[in-house]
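Hey, I'm writing a tutorial for new members on how sequence and structure tokens pair up, and I'd like a real worked example in the thread rather than a made-up one. If someone can provide the structure for the chain below, I'll link this post from the tutorial.
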Amino acid sequence: MDAALLYSGGKDSTLAALLLDSFYDVTLVTTTFGITDAVAHARAAGEAVGFPVETVELEADVAREAVAQMVEDGFPRNGIQQVHDHALEVVAAREFDAVADGTRRDDRVPTVSRAQAQSLEDRHGVDYLAPLSGFGRSAVDALVDANLEVEVGPSEDLPKGDYEAELRALIREEYEDTTVAEVFPAHDQTRVVGLREE
């Protein structure tokens, strides 16, 4: 069975790929609005851990709507959720048996409710998989430390192939430079560079 995993190149989506690998032929799917080349970072991470990587184009209007929502809200949560929902829909419509993501039990965003997962499955004839949904942050961190080589740094300095990189760039294009810092709180993120040697 073929599974498409929404892939950013970070630790969560990479760990999700490793968990699914025993049961599915996993393809890592990076998504892009064509705003930046952030998918190159995800592609490099996916290749470093040995999975095939595909890139899927998303609708630019969705990015603009998400950015407008984030600027209006003053925080990224609702905009990121909009983009994640759109990405799941686009990927679920492709020729895969299952669509998956790296959402954890304690993620605040993005999330997928049981009703949303059921709807996605029913409408597209796929299975929705969330292999990390039973894992909290400390469990994920322990598994990552044991299995993956990662780089850690501020999100501004460590681009990866996630939605945030392109949405930040779009905010910079359409609003003042200071708006990015007003919407996105400073935080560290990870980028996978390979598997840990045994």
